[in-house]
């Protein structure tokens, strides 16, 4: 929920922690992998949630869904460590590719660009589309 609050998208959260636990940890085929940065007492400072995606041009790649560091711990390199850990995993995939989104107003975009990421909206004119629950319901009603 902290990430949704940071992104001003709290109204879009439709699942709770139990669904995340089931989908990522309580299954033989997890939907995602999550790396965490924690203090020795187990307090989580930040996390990176990613999954394997597939390109018909390049094969398997990594999609970084979420990278979040609590405000109190930002500016200490934790986000970069998490990002680099996922990037290393992506580097070991067949395609050596990692994709991710960043809201247009998020200052992290400069951080990603400084690490060599390319903004595909600008460079390749890609548009991202989504059919949400209401759109799919309407499509099949």
Question: How would you sum up this structure, described in words?
Answer:
This protein is α+β, with helices and mostly antiparallel strands and 141 residues long. Helices cover 32% and strands 23% of the residues. The chain is built from six helices and four strands, in the order ααβββαβααα. Strand 3, helix 3 (78-91) and strand 4 form a beta-alpha-beta unit. The longest helix has 14 residues, at 78-91. The chain is globular. Residues 1-141 form the N-acetyltransferase domain. It comes from Cryptolaemus montrouzieri. Keywords: Acyltransferase, Transferase. InterPro entries: Acyl_CoA_acyltransferase, Diverse_Substrate_AcTransf, GNAT_dom.
Rg for CA atoms: 16 Å
Order of helices and strands: HHEEEHEHHH
Low-pLDDT runs of 5+ residues are: none
Which structural class is indicated by helix and strand composition?
alpha+beta
Largest sheet: 4 strands, mixed
Approximate helicity band: 25-40%
Total DSSP helices? 6
Shape: globular
Secondary structure: number of strands: 4
> Strand order of the main beta sheet, please?
1-2-3-4
The overall average pLDDT, rounded, is 89
Question: What distance lies between the first and last C-alpha atoms, to the nearest angstrom?
Answer: 32 Å
Family: Belongs to the acetyltransferase family.
Protein name: N-acetyltransferase domain-containing protein
Organism: Cryptolaemus montrouzieri
Pfam family, one: Acetyltransf_1
């Amino acid at each position: 929920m902290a990430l949704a609050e940071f992104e001003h998208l709290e109204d879009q959260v439709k699942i709770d922690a139990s669904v995340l636990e089931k989908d990522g940890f309580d299954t033989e085929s997890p939907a995602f992998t999550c790396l965490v940065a924690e203090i020795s007492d187990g307090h989580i400072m930040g996390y990176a949630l990613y999954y394997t995606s597939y390109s018909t041009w390049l094969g398997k790649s990594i999609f970084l869904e979420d990278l979040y560091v609590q405000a109190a711990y930002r500016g200490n390199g934790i986000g970069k460590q998490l990002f680099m850990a996922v990037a290393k995993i992506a580097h070991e995939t067949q395609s050596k590719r990692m994709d991710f989104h960043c809201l247009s107003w998020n200052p992290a975009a400069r951080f990603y660009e400084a690490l060599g990421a390319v903004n595909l909206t600008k460079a390749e004119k890609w548009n991202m589309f989504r059919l949400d629950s209401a759109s799919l319901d309407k499509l099949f009603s």
